[in-house]
Prior knowledge:
- The chain is mostly helical.
- The protein contains four helices and no strands.
- α2 packs antiparallel against α4.
- The longest helix is centred in the last third of the chain and has 19 residues, at 51-69.
- 0% of the residues are buried.
Amino acid sequence: MTSGKFKPVPQIIMELPADEKKRLFINTIAILRKLSWTNVEQLTVLVMGSKTLQKQLVDMLNSYFIKELGSEMK
């Protein structure tokens, strides 16, 4: 943040090229595929109710940012 290069994660994701968004989507679905959900409301309840699932998703995002974008989430 002190270097002036800080951007919120949602902004970074929105600015990704289509192929990078697709790779991130595939990584996310690999985690969510294990769950039984039929709509976004159910998915939100499942994710918000599980610290383990939240950690898996954050870890996946952090790994993606480090490996693919050369940056880190804080």
